[in-house]
Amino acid sequence: MRFPISLMLFLLLLGVACGVHWRITRRTTTSSTWGPRDIQKWCRLNFGPAWGGRGC
């Protein structure tokens, strides 16, 4: 199932915006640096089998 490129870009921007917001709100309790596990989870969510990708 193929998605239009514009939809993919929109979802990517939405993901980035949510990630920035989440990091800002989380900064008060913990450090704002991303660990390898966080990046792996993000990659699996955004580029996993659901999107037709192979993941990270």
Describe this protein's structure.
One of its GO terms (biological process) is regulation of female receptivity, post-mating. Its main location: secreted. One of its GO terms (molecular function) is hormone activity. Keywords: Behavior, Disulfide bond, Secreted, Signal. This protein is mainly alpha-helical and 56 residues long. The protein has one domain. It contains two helices and no strands. The protein is flat. The chain starts with a helix and ends in a 9-residue tail after the last helix. The mean pLDDT is 68.
**Helicity range:** 55-70%
Query: Please, how many domains?
Result: 1
Q: Helical region count?
A: 2
What characteristic shape results from the CA principal axes? Answer: flat
Main location: secreted
GO molecular function: hormone activity
Keywords: Behavior, Disulfide bond, Secreted, Signal
Subcellular location: Secreted
